Amino acid sequence: MFQIMQICATQNCLRAIANRSYCTPVVNIFDRNVKRLQRERAAKSADVELYDYIKEEVGYRISDRIFDVKRVFTNAVDLGASRGYVTNHVLGETVKRLTAVDLSPSMLAHVKGTPGLDFSVREMDEEKFDFDPASLDLVVSSLSLHWVNDLPACFRAVNKALKPDGVFIGAMFGGETLYELRSSLHLAEQERRGGLSPHLSPFTQIRDVGMLLNRSNFTMLTIDTDEIVVGFPSMFELMWDLKGMAESNAAFNRPLHISRETLMAAAAIYKDMYGKDDGVTATFQIIYFVGWKPCPSQPKPLPRGSADVSLKDLGKLMDPKHVSDKK
User: Fold this and answer.
1) Assigned domain for 63 exists
2) Domain total of the chain
3) Whose CA, among 66, 100, 163, 264, lies 20 to 30 Å from 84?
4) pLDDT 10s digits, 271-323
5) Do residues 174 and 203 lie in contact, with contact meaning Cβ atoms separated by under 8 Å?
């Protein structure tokens, strides 16, 4: 029976993690061993490249953002590298040395890099990010952090490993990801079973990412969001692709199966509510973020009260008559 990717039903869990005291015990939602096995299975599939379309596109966009930073990085890490969706687009002229780390060794075996790029691979759980303090000047992560149980600890570990003025560039699935599948399953289970099963997990909202980064000592934050809409013949092809992406359910309390009756009802609801002439669509919301480790050389805001123009006078400054009078 298909395992279903966990989709966000509520963001309250993540907000609670972001606001909690650091001494509060972490409640593990995801089984990291199951996630490793899912990635291993996907990596060993003969047609694994067929399911790369979302992660390949986002990885390319992340690498493009690296090029936007006008500097050469001497030591970088691709956190949750998977099959090298970022590493395979990074140029040696921009990054001198790059280490691709992932939970799955079979995924790392697919990393190819680019000509001239000095890269290596290292098996490492994203939750156990372990590099020497102040040893990196760039950390990138593309679509892997949504399976991390303790994001604040992960972000703090990244911040600790970065040099002053080092940068953390990443992308995560946002809370609106696969809202079509989420609502279809909700309605089908309520109709057929009179309740909801825990197929769903908390994805983050854009405001939560900023809060987590800020609490982890990152500064000069840049956060934006985008949506990628993909068409499928039906809900079942979407579910099959999620399995091929290694994005199946990995929660400790996940149900072992979904009844055929519920699946057929969900597929009918999906088609009725979100169907097109040639099938259905699925939305993937991507949250991109950039955070910098503080450094004395970074730009600082001017002191309060140092402005010599009042905001209420901005209209006058833009008035052509006012400008001509000053001349």
Assistant:
1) yes
2) 1
3) 163
4) 999 998 889 999 999 999 999 999 988 888 778 877 777 777 777 766 666 55
5) yes
